[in-house]
């Protein structure tokens, strides 16, 4: 992308919580195509789908995934996926294959930014823990059911990987944007929706690195924002609830040298967030 004047270094398309279902799909598909038009018209470099592509109904979950992915494939650009809790109504491996993912957590670098994608369902009631540390995380949840069984945690192996990614980005002089389906701060969600089980540990880890600029999430359907240790934590409203909050159905993040601008589908600026 050309870097002159006020042009951003990178444009990231954003959408979350589509919750494709058989009942809503005819109307939702038309509005989702408008999101594809928005990203094409604004020449985004990559689209981040922040999780919960499907509703996950027992009878129709496979069809739901096929329908929404078929439509998204009409977009000729790069689409990257974040694993959401509703997505795991399908077997994890089948889901990863359908989304074109080798691993549920991963990173990629573009224009001096390292984008780090977390798997917030790494430890959950849907998986047998892989390590003693993960067993303790799951046991802690079982002792505190108010944390919600539809949420999950970042496991110990992923935490070690995340640390290595943050250290690598620091060595290479890359600024970091973190993506996670679940919110990481209590002030950016509500009790009903919940947040990442081990949100406090992950939030402390990522904010301990001076090159981390933002964490972008979904899951809480009405959106939220907080600044913590200089890092912007932005939670985007759900596509499925678009008629309740029409100001954001989808949008994009424009990343500049010293700031980030969040815009909606009408190209209206919602946030102008300085980098530290």
Detailed description of the structure:
The protein has 276 residues and is α/β, with parallel strands linked by helices. The chain has a single domain, classed as Metallo-dependent phosphatases (Purple Acid Phosphatase, chain A, domain 2, 4-Layer Sandwich), CATH 3.60.21.10. The protein is 27% helix and 23% strand. The chain has helices at residues 25-41, 61-72, 92-99, 132-143, 156-171, 199-207, and strands at residues 10-15, 46-49, 78-81, 106-110, 113-117, 175-180, 212-217, 224-228, 231-235, 251-255, 259-264, 269-274. A six-stranded mixed sheet has the order 3-2-1-10-11-12. A six-stranded mixed sheet has the order 4-5-6-7-9-8, covered by helices on one side. A hairpin with a 3-residue loop joins strand 10 and strand 11 (259-264). It is globular and about 50 Å long. It starts with 9 loop residues before the first strand and ends with a strand. The model is unreliable at 1-5 (pLDDT under 50).
């Amino acid at each position: 992308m050309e870097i002159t004047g006020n042009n951003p270094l990178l444009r990231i398309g954003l959408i979350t919580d589509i919750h494709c279902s058989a009942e809503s799909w005819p109307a939702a598909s038309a509005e989702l195509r408008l999101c594809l038009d928005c990203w094409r018209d604004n020449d985004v470099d990559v689209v981040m789908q922040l999780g919960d592509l499907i509703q996950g109904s027992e009878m129709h979950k496979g069809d739901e995934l096929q329908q929404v992915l078929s439509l998204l494939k009409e977009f000729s650009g790069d689409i990257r996926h974040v694993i959401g809790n509703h997505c795991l109504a399908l077997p994890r491996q089948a889901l990863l294959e359908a989304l074109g993912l080798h691993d549920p957590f991963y990173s990629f670098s573009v224009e001096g930014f390292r984008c780090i994608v977390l798997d917030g369902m790494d430890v959950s009631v849907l998986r047998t823990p892989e390590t003693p540390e993960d067993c303790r995380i799951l046991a802690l949840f079982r002792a505190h059911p108010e944390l919600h069984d539809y949420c999950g945690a970042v496991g110990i192996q992923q935490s070690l990987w995340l640390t290595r990614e943050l250290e690598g980005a620091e060595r290479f002089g890359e600024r970091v944007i973190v993506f996670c389906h679940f919110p990481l701060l209590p002030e950016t969600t509500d009790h009903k929706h919940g947040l990442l089980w081990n949100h406090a540990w992950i939030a402390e880890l990522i904010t301990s690195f001076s090159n981390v600029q933002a964490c972008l999430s979904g899951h809480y359907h009405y959106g939220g924002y907080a600044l913590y240790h200089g890092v912007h934590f932005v939670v985007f409203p759900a596509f499925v609830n678009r008629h309740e909050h029409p100001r954001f159905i989808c949008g994009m993040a424009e990343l500049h040298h010293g700031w980030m601008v969040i815009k909606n589908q009408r190209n209206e600026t919602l946030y102008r967030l300085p980098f530290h």
